[in-house]
Specification:
By secondary structure, the chain is of the alpha+beta class. The protein has twelve helices and 16 strands. It folds into two domains: 206 residues, Dna Ligase, domain 1, CATH 3.30.1490.20; 173 residues, D-amino Acid Aminotransferase, Chain A, domain 1 (2-Layer Sandwich). Helix 3 packs antiparallel against helix 4. The longest helix is centred in the last third of the chain and has 19 residues. The two termini are 25 Å apart.
């Protein structure tokens, strides 16, 4: 059974339209200059694919103009230019010192009041009538991500299980500051990009409780052989960052696309991964998320059921068909341990995302944080019940 994650619709009759916030329903793939590559893909999927049954948690983008507004109002643009004036990226100490100074300057500055109010207002729309803060993912979306001649993906920060106004505003500033990590600064210099021609948008999206279920990435091609008629799914317990970053050995499932589209259930192969630990909410602790060991018995079981594998593969085909007319996509997926699941554009664990992105229109899906399946942040999908794991043959 597939569940949905109910989020109140934003008030489109407001007297004054927001300057710095755009909901996914108002974003399309052509909006990369305004909301970055990740948010543009999320908006495109939310607008075009939810009507086809692909489950994508709602969210909003804090636009690149919000970032520029922050720099102007806090007088940071001149400060950053001064700090980077004598930059030498071949001198590691010089790079580290100047990068740290830039990040500290951004973190020490106050967000403009009008920007704070728009972010808080949009976040409160998620809450509806609920008394407790809503858990959201806060993800960077650079306006230069995944360009034809450079890949900026993965250079900026992501924060999971962010709850409350203060935590949200703080993580937004940390995302802005992550545009100036040492790695990002050096990469832009090496590629000849002006630091001030690239801006940062932020995606804020409802979490799916994958920490109670499973998550992973999915590709509409076999990334090792280039075989185009297979969907490759990686899955592990918990939130999806461990799979995306390649820090766990996930399950692998292969599905044959031609007969799947003909109505059959063509799972070609299932390989159980070791899945030693999982990323979960740090409830009652000092962190937002933490890694915990997976029970030995669960490590030898598959993280998701055959029905879940086939549903994710169907969604992958829908996403591939949609994006093949525009550009490649690699969404993550998440399997909800409590509510639903969702897609999100991202990269696979042991595979180069740039290779997958350009070798074909690859697609990856990642489970979200509720019981069910759904598509999330860079696109994600949600599944609505915990299925009995299947043991290896």
């Amino acid at each position: 059974m597939i569940g949905t994650l109910e989020v109140p619709a934003p008030d489109r009759k407001a007297a004054v339209a927001p300057r710095f916030v755009k909901w996914f329903a108002d974003i399309c793939i052509e909006d990369i200059p305004l909301v970055g590559g990740k948010n543009a893909s999320l908006g495109e999927m939310y607008r075009e694919l939810t009507r086809q049954g692909v489950k994508i948690p709602n969210g909003f983008a804090i636009t690149a103009e919000a970032y520029r507004h922050f720099l102007r109002e806090a007088k940071l643009d001149a400060k950053i230019r001064e700090l980077l004036g004598g930059l030498d990226t071949t001198d590691i100490d010089n790079l580290r010192q100047r990068g740290s100074q830039v990040r500290q300057a951004i973190l020490a500055a106050d967000l403009p009041r009008d920007l704070e109010q728009e972010i808080i207002s949009a976040y409160d729309t998620f809450r509806g009538t609920h008394l407790h803060p809503v858990d959201v993912a806060v993800r960077s979306s650079a306006t230069a991500e995944d360009l034809p001649d450079a890949s900026f993906a993965g250079q900026q920060e992501t924060y999971l299980n962010v709850q409350g106004h203060l935590a949200l505003l703080d993580t937004c500033k940390r995302c802005f500051a992550s545009l100036f990590t040492d790695r990002a600064i050096s990469y832009r210099v090496d590629k000849g990009f002006d630091h001030f021609k690239i801006a940062l948008s932020i995606g804020v999206q409802r979490m799916v409780r994958a920490d109670l279920g499973a998550s992973g990435v999915m590709f509409t091609i076999d990334t090792e052989t280039g075989f185009r008629d297979a969907v490759l799914i990686n899955a592990a317990y918990g939130l999806g960052e461990n799979v995306v970053q390649g820090t766990v050995n996930p399950d692998e499932y292969y599905v044959f696309k031609p007969t799947l589209k003909a109505g059959f259930k063509p799972i070609l192969q299932k390989i159980v991964g070791t899945k030693e630990f999982k990323l979960v909410y740090d409830i009652g602790g000092g962190k937002m998320v933490k890694n915990v060991p997976v029970a030995p018995g669960d490590r030898t079981r598959f993280a998701i059921s055959d029905d879940d594998i086939l549903q994710l593969a169907r969604w992958a085909c829908l996403i591939e068909d949609h994006y093949s007319a525009k550009k490649g996509s690699r969404p993550r997926w998440t399997w909800n341990g409590r509510r639903t699941a969702a897609p999100e554009n991202s990269s696979s664990s042991r595979r180069d995302p740039r290779l997958c992105n350009r070798a074909s229109s690859s697609t990856s899906l990642k489970p979200t944080n509720s019981r069910g399946a759904a598509l999330c942040s860079s696109p994600v999908a949600v599944l609505a019940r915990r299925s009995r794991p299947v043991r290896c043959a």
